[in-house]
Amino acid sequence: MAQNDRAKSMSIQFRYAPEILSRFPQLHSRTLLVDGIDKKADSTAEVARLRAIADQRLAAANEGEFPEIQAWRRAFSTMGLKPTQYRCASEALLRRYRKEGVLPALHPLIDLCNAASLAFAIPVAVFDISKITGTMTVRLAHGNETYETFGGEVEHPEPGEIVFADDDGRAHARRWTNRQSGWSAVRPETTQALIVTEALHETADNDSAALMSSLAGALAAIWPGATVTGMEPL
After folding, report:
1. CB 31 within 8 A of CB 233
2. Residues 89-111 as b or e (16 or more Cβ within 10 Å = b)
3. Helices 67-78 and 89-100, interaxial angle, to 10°?
4. Which has the closest alpha carbon to 125: 168, 89, 157, 87?
5. Beta strands in the chain (DSSP E)
6. Residue 185: left if φ>0, alpha if ψ -120 to 50, beta else—which one?
7. pLDDT tens per residue across span 207-231
């Protein structure tokens, strides 16, 4: 790996704007930096392990009954969003998985993180570090940020919605991880990634720690040569 690429991965920062932390004091967030991934790895076994956990939970209750999901629905309601119109990433995944019984294979890292989100009912966002400039901040949108869809179209978030934005004013996710941008999505050529988990329910701290521990172990098994580093949000 080129030295400048490695330096970039080590210097990436992730933070929350003060207004987000004051508005949602129950928020628990954890991050991982992964250096050394590739598209050729096989995540099938780890994905199957995590999906089995999701299967057990869904056999006992609908995802809408999970405390993790209910907490996000309450948060979305306080933001003026209809919970059934704008679902958090984990609820959207669980709902689709419950109906279809499968999720499409996209990339070994994405498949792993989606499976972890299913198992823990906690949103897991994954970003290509090479596409992030400076610090990634979760904050209220000004309305002039640039957001690129997976189809390549350019949008501007509505003022006041919660976005993941970098120092260039590029929005990497809209409506609080519900819509990740195509700009920084993991691609076949991605080698470094930022993984972010966020939870709001009563046992969020312990559950988020368990999720990240499970993910870190899976990453080490799938990419034995990769470097996995935990990072506390600023």
Report:
1. yes
2. bbbbbbeebeeeeebeeebbbbb
3. 130
4. 89
5. 13-16, 28-35, 124-128, 135-140, 147-148, 154-155, 162-165, 171-174, 179-180, 192-199, 227-231
6. beta
7. 999 999 999 999 999 999 999 999 8
In degrees and rounded to multiples of 5, residue 146 shows phi and psi of -100, 125
Does the predicted TM-score (pTM) go above 0.85? yes
Residue 101 φ/ψ region, left for φ over 0, alpha for ψ in the -120 to 50 degree band, beta for the rest: left
Q: Return the closest-CA partner of residue 43 out of 114, 97, 128, 109.
A: 109
Chain length of the chain = 234
Mean pLDDT value across the chain: 93
In the numeric block, which tokens belong to residue 49?
């392990």
- Of 69, 101, 7, the closest CA to residue 202 belongs to 69
Q: Is the dihedral of CA 135, 136, 140, 142 positive or negative?
A: positive
